[in-house]
Amino acid sequence: MIKAKKSLGQNFLIDKNILEKITNIAKIENNTILEIGPGTGNLTSYILKKKPKKIYVIEKDNELTINLQKKFNNEITIINEDVLKIDETNLFKDKVTVFGNLPYNISTEILSKWIINLKDNFWFECLILMFQKEVADRIIAEFNTSNYGRLSIISNWKLKIKKVFDIKPEAFSPKPKVISSVLIFYPKKNFIKIDNPYNLEKVTRIFFNQRRKMLKKPFNQLFNGDQKVLNKLKIDLTLRPQNINLETYYNLVCEYEKLRS
């Protein structure tokens, strides 16, 4: 019997109703599917029932990879690599539908990597991803709320995000100590163009470094008190970082890039 490795943040989804529910979120039949962290292949089995065109799975754990090869033979293509070190943009001919029970310890890192590396021609149709509920709440948080922050701003830049449902700890083995949430991400047709996505990371990091403080200090750090930017974007420097909406942050990054060009 395969045991979950705590060091890799493994919690295997075993609830049959939830597995079925997840595979009903998006069309699978005749589509190319990518599954991140298939573990013991429970979700993989349910995806196969829906007759996909092809399934790729990315599994870092060598023991699990051998188990998956025995279990599925040639029904799936296994990529025995670390998802953080793979360039998905060059892996597939077709756009893929992605399913992922992401390891809690690197879930935000995986999502941030995908978003920062996204080109305008998206490599996926949609992402169906599972996060710790607390992380999911931060991803979908709206401005003027305590959960709103860097993750909300970065995640919503090029993606439209919707919460699908929560999953109780009992659905997993071993049982995590937290509730999980399933989110679906679709590519946006229209979004504010930023030349270098790392500037989005930088600007949001500086603004949220002291999230309880007013905007004046981080603004001056980035823009040296430039009144033209303030007037153009109608920013009140007595507000706090969570009081500024998504579009204003994206426009701030554009202004920052203009200053540096």
Overview of the molecule:
With 261 residues, this protein is of the alpha/beta class. It has two domains: 182 residues, 3-Layer(aba) Sandwich (Rossmann fold), CATH 3.40.50.150; 64 residues, Helicase, Ruva Protein, domain 3. It is 35% helix and 19% strand. It is built from ten helices and nine strands. The strands form two sheets. The chain has a seven-stranded mixed β-sheet. Strands 1-8 form a two-stranded antiparallel sheet. Strand 2, helix 2 and strand 3 form a beta-alpha-beta unit. Helix 7 packs across helix 10. The protein is elongated, with a radius of gyration of 20 Å.
Ends: how far apart?
A: 58 Å
- From the 3D structure, determine the CATH topology of the largest domain: Rossmann fold
Number of domains: 2
Q: How do the strands line up in the largest sheet?
A: 4-3-2-5-6-9-7
How many strands appear in the DSSP assignment? 9
Calculate the mean pLDDT score and round it: 93
The portion of residues forming beta strands comes to 15-25%
Specify the biggest β-sheet.
Answer: 7 strands, mixed
Overall geometry:
elongated
What value does the Rg take, in angstroms?
Answer: 20 Å
Please work out how many helical segments DSSP would assign: 10
Helix fraction, binned, reads: 25-40%
CATH architecture of the largest domain: 3-Layer(aba) Sandwich
